[in-house]
Amino acid sequence: MGARRLVVVLVHLIGFSWLITKNALPSFALTIGKRGCQTECGNVSIPFPFGIGSTNNKCFLDDWFEIVCDNSTSSPTAYLKRTNLQVLNISLGDYYSYYSSSPPDVIQVRNPITFRNCKDKETRESLNLTGSPFVFSASENMFTAVSCGARALMSSSSLDDVEISAGCKSKCLQNKQGYMNCWKGVNCCQTTIPSYVIKTFSTTFETETGKTCIYAFVADQEWFSSMFNNTNTSAALHNMDYVPVTLEWKLNNYSKNQIFGTNLSVLKLEDLLWSKSIRCRGDYSISSENLTAALSVQGCYCYYGFEGNPYLLEGCQDVNECQIDNRRYCGGEETCVNTFGSYECRKPKVKIVLIEWDAIQKSMKTCSNIEESYEEVEYVRNEIIETWDVFTTIGSNASTSSGVAPSSDKLPLSV
């Protein structure tokens, strides 16, 4: 008989598709505004605490955050109702912005350019944000003056009535076409604005010729850097009346009850303070007598692994990292499995079919005994055949010895 081979099989179970399906969130749009409130105007998204709608619906935190959407033109335009500032963009801070040098919560609006001695240009003053929750962002904006050999100075007072000033002076170089190309202090100058809480400022000018057209403004520095792609930067700016400026906003004067709802219970406040999905900065106090709580909020953000609006109850929603390519860190045969606020990289399961070695040895021994017994039987049979060959036939009906069949042979068989 042929030798038997024992095969041990390792079953490689690949696939966690059922796990992914089980943990994956359904696709839906992130909630950014209060229920029943308009959240878009043209190409501008309007997240709470900003809002469009009636006061009764509480679409916005207060009148500083009320947005009016002007639909009188082909492209709807958003305005801050109280300041009449055109809104270009509103951004809520996230986990990364709160731990970087960038301001977390910002709004970008149009800021008027201040002109002097410029033909067909009105003299406008910059924004006055006094009393509002908005301030000029020191990290996102630059003060810029454009002219040939001009000096410009911006002056402001901080909340502590401290005089704040910043200024710069440009060099003069005019090309053959008469355009003043602005580049690194030539025909224009730039400087950072002070890192204080600035809500308003005035601009003063000095020129070498006295009648030279000069203008200055505070603008978003990223936007201004893109202007250098234009060789005639000064000419392009001269045709503008407004530039984008970035304002920071904080909710220092608002309680968490005002933001998230009136009469917020202590239990609900503690749930928010220790929530896995949302983080807020500020000071809070809890009254056990009337079970109410107040929190002075500087700002809130969705924690890592969540996205949405941190100023709404349950506004931060879990991100399915397994569906975002730039966050997929699982490699090889590992499978990405989404979890609440995070993800896991799981290795494929391996199922091993084990057979006891003692049973294998016993089985092999049994097979060996069977073969040996078979050989012994054949040997005994050979002996019997030889004995049977020497018998002679007594008669046709005679019986042979026990176990030997009768034969009709007359003579013994030759061996």
UniProtKB/TrEMBL annotation:
**PANTHER family the UniProt entry points to:** OSJNBA0016N04.9 PROTEIN
User: Where is it localised?
Assistant: Membrane
Q: What protein name is recorded for this chain?
A: Uncharacterized protein
Report whether Phosphoprotein shows up as a keyword of the record. no
Residues forming the Wall-associated receptor kinase galacturonan-binding domain are 37-94
The answer on whether this UniProt entry bears the keyword Oxidoreductase reads no
Species assigned in the record: Ziziphus jujuba var. spinosa
Wall-associated receptor kinase domain residues: 184-252
